[in-house]
Amino acid sequence: MAYDGLAMFEFGVAFDVFGTDWSHDLGVSWYQFSVCAANPPTVTVEGGYQLHVPSGLSDLDRADTILVPPTESADHVPAGALEALRRAHCRGARIVSLCTGAFVLAAAGLLSGRHATTHWSECAELARCYPDVQVDPAVLYVDGGDVMTSAGSAASIDLCLHLVRQDYGAEVAARLARQLVVPPYRDGGQAQYIDAPLPAVDGADLFTGTLAWMQAHLELPLSVDDLANRSAMSRRTFARRFAAATGTTPYQWLLRQRLQLAQRLLETSDIPVDLIAQQTGFVTGANLRKHFGRHVRTTPQAYRRTFRSRDRTPAEVA
């Protein structure tokens, strides 16, 4: 489905997977693909370019799967398109959003009471605008059966390959992934990409100094009582001030900061995982792996393999 403000990267992913005729390469009969819009024959995509759209929304009445790419704003999606999505869902079509296309699905009421995801930077906004949607910012995609949502940009490829895997099996999906020069599965979720910098706190008081001290001493065993004493506060006052400043608890903040430090060390050094665990306050490699798997959705070694290459020179890559 196309509309004004359409993001072309995710649209291109959808076309490459489903619109390209892969039947000869993969040895199976491929999908029938069409692009439709509420007001054909053209839509204005991001950047101000014109996209020719041959079909109207009647195509949605026949489609088995409907792909909803992102747009600059769900306000750009005509009411008729939202109604067409609702009708298609009622008759049993599979509705799939890519990146912030989740806002379009939410506007159509298709995510109410469901788990969903979108680009990590937009998850808070999706949850704020649609409080009845259970938004998960950590995963690459959510398969809700008849309704599916993907995280940002490249995660559209992950969800599209997941659809192919459902329809044609793992072997065909893996062969298609090779044709696209992408992995058939990616380790972890989008949690490993989320940027969570140290929050800015006004004032140069003892509490602000304690935050900075915590950041510099993540390897130490830190208790709320010790931190409250360092801030010259009671435990209760410290916890209340901490929540107001950071939006979370001291434990959760420390855990996030320790994981971020572990990620930086994995990206930029060859330090063994057990030693990284000691330097980041997790103490043991087993404890680091447990929290890494729970929050980053992958293992430290897999994360290192994925991101360590970013700092190599072209000669090293060659």
Layout of strands and helices, then pairs:
Elements: H1 8-19, H2 23-26, E1 42-44, E2 50-52, E3 65-68, H3 79-90, E4 94-97, H4 102-107, E5 115-116, H5 123-129, E6 134-135, E7 141-143, E8 147-150, H6 155-168, H7 170-180, H8 206-216, H9 224-230, H10 235-246, H11 250-268, H12 273-279, H13 285-295, H14 300-307, H15 314-317
Parallel strand pairs: 3-4, 4-8, 5-6
Antiparallel strand pairs: 1-2, 7-8
Helix pairs in contact: 1-6, 6-7, 9-10, 11-14, 12-13
Structure, described:
This protein is α/β, with parallel strands linked by helices and 318 residues long. The protein folds into two domains: 8-192, Rossmann fold (3-Layer(aba) Sandwich), CATH 3.40.50.880; 206-311, Orthogonal Bundle (Arc Repressor Mutant, subunit A), CATH 1.10.10.60. The chain is 46% helix and 8% strand. The chain contains 15 helices and eight strands. The chain has helices at 8-19, 23-26, 79-90, 102-107, 123-129, 155-168, 170-180, 206-216, 224-230, 235-246, 250-268, 273-279, 285-295, 300-307, 314-317, and strands spanning 42-44, 50-52, 65-68, 94-97, 115-116, 134-135, 141-143, 147-150. The strands form three sheets. The protein has a four-stranded mixed β-sheet with strand order 3-4-8-7, with helices on both faces. Helix 9 crosses helix 10 (235-246) and helix 12 (273-279) crosses helix 13. The radius of gyration is 23 Å and the shape is globular. Residues 310-318 have low confidence and may be disordered.
